[in-house]
Every structure is written in C-alpha cells, then in structure tokens.
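Supplementary Text 2. Reproducibility record for the structural model of the 286-residue chain.

All settings were left at their defaults, and a single model was retained for analysis rather than an ensemble. We include the record here because the model underlies the residue-level annotations in Supplementary Table 4.
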Amino acid sequence: MTIAFIGIGVMGISMARNLMKNGHTLRVYTRTASKAVPLVAEGAQQFDNIADCVKGAQAVITIVGYPKDVEQVYLHEGGILDSAEEGALLIDMTTTSPALWQRIAKEARAEGFRPLDAPVSGGDNGAKAGTLAIMVGGEQADFEAAKPLFECMGKTIILEGADGAGQHTKMANQIAIAGAVAGVAEAIRYGEAAGLDLTTMLDTISSGAAGSWQMDNNGRKMVSGDMDPGFFIKHFIKDLAISKDEGKQRGLKLPVLNKTLKMYQKMEEQGKGDLGTQALIDLYRE
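Retained model, structure tokens:
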C-alpha cells in the first residue's frame, strides 16, 4: 500500500520504518526535514509539503505533537482534507483532543474519507519493536481495512468504539500512567533514603504485586540516571491537560492526575520539558 506518513519524531520514525519493512511504499513529510533523512536512505520518498505528500496515497498516517498541529495538518488550506485522495484512510495516531478528532472525522467522512483515531502506547521501545498498543476509534469496516497497517506497528490492536473512542481510551491510559510513574519514583526515593541497593530492590518488588511496565522500564532508567526521552515530559503534560479538561467536562475529580500534572508542569518551568517522563525522580530528589 502507498502510505503518506506525516510527523517523524521519536515514535514516528520507528513506526514508519516498520511499515517499510513490511513492504509498504512510504511518502513522508515532516516540518524538520532532517528528521526524515534516515527513512529516505532506506527508500522513503520525502516531500516539502502535505499536499504533494498525500497525493495518490491510499492511507495517510499522522503522528504530530499537539492538538493545534493535528488541526493544522488536517483542516488548514493545503492540508490533508484539501489534498488527499477520496476514499483514503485517514489515521491520526497523535494523542489529541477527542472533541477535535470527532470534528475532523465528521468533516472527513462527509468528504468521502475513512477516518480513524488511533493513539498508541508503548514508548519508543514499543515503536522500535513493533509492539505498540493501538487504541482505535471509528467504523468497523475502516478499522478492518487499516488493521494490516496497524499490525506492522503494534501487537494489541483494539477498536474501542466510534470516533474519538481511541482518544478517550488513551486519556484513561495516561491517567493510569500518571499514578504509576509517580508511585515508582516515590518508591525509588524511599529506597535511596533507606540505603537500599536500588537494582536489587527493583528486582524484588517488580516480581510481585507492585510490578508494572513503568517499574520495569522507567524505574530502571531512574536508577541508572538515563533521562533521555522515550516520551517527552512536554508531551505528557499536553496529554494530562487534555485528560483533566475531559474529566472536568464530565464533573470528575481526578486528584492523582491533577497532582502529577502539577509536578510535571513544575519540571517544565525548570526547563526540563525535553527530558523523558522518568525524570520525575529529579523532583523527588530536590
């Protein structure tokens, strides 16, 4: 299949590469052209605007930074809805506002496109390994048409419901992560203060009821001092802020989410927004 892939970041580059490894033809666009250089060396064709990138593509996949970026690539003049082939699958894998995607999907479907929201979880390691969890919203027939593409990038691939359901599922995912990553950081800080060997401590508690993906992955990074981003703090703040807003609209009180969001916002104020989410441990060490 010919795929237009828009957004080559920490996650996107590996997702795009896995599509190519499975025999798909890739056309790429990214605002920072240098990020696409490795893919071009592997056979992708690069374009300097969205309109040319999406022409002739049977599927368009986007994974960009913020809701404003999603709105821009889909709805602005010369964007995807202006330029893509009628009948194309339009798959947004960004974590974005459910309400925004529902608006885009409604317009896209009216123009003859097949829209799906499909945010992912699993970090850069999951993207590299092709083992992402992919949470999809949209129509069943479109999901089935896109599933072979999803299978190139992920292992857990579930249609959650109608337009926006993938995004709402991702909000629940991020709320759960907020508590988990903070809990791991607190446990490590306690272990430090108690004089424990932290690797031994993690080996022990990760094998019991406290075990989690966050502990196995980000907990190890906290101990080793590896703060490189598998997922940027600045993007996690964006996700948690969307979750908070969606919860507020539904009259929910989400104290763990709100506390963790404030902690990460403090880190961003300290200039640490480009670190990985595991850098939360730094706040506990102040």
